Amino acid sequence: MRDRLVRTAIVGVCALAVLTALAACGSGVPASEWAGRVCSALAPWRTQISDLNARAQRQMSTASTPVQTRDNLLELLSGAETVSESARGAVAAAGTPDVDGGDEVARHFTASLEATRDAYARARGDLQALPTDDAEVFYDGVVAVMTRLTEEYAQSGVDTTKLDSPELREAFDGVDQCR
Length: 179
Known about the structure:
Elements: H1 2-25, H2 31-62, H3 66-93, H4 102-129, H5 135-156, H6 166-174
């Protein structure tokens, strides 16, 4: 009886080890599938950012006071922060590409969208804090806030042409959602 229990325990441990090894081997997403998921997450984000900018430009053309300007820009920044967080979540949900350094690549993409989201949030907070009672001071402040946002936005981007993984470069070039 004791030998039977020992054999059962050994078989159970071996089976668990095999299942764990198999799970570890299959944890990544194929490169082309991952690239498609990422591009599918980023396409609506780009469209929404573009739409928010276009709406803000229309609103700004009729804004005649610092308060109206601030409100229009706050709507833009808040919306951009929200859609950037949605895109970040969708990219994170894409998983990890099954390539060398896939964990790092996935983290880099997610961190890029976090930085973009955070840049919009900082700009929103800074803009909200600007006094609106002196138009010249307010508009000078707007220029400073938007200049910093532009710089932070540019620094946060991911350039897929500089990926260290030939498999991912090829995947991004070959997936329809990425074109």
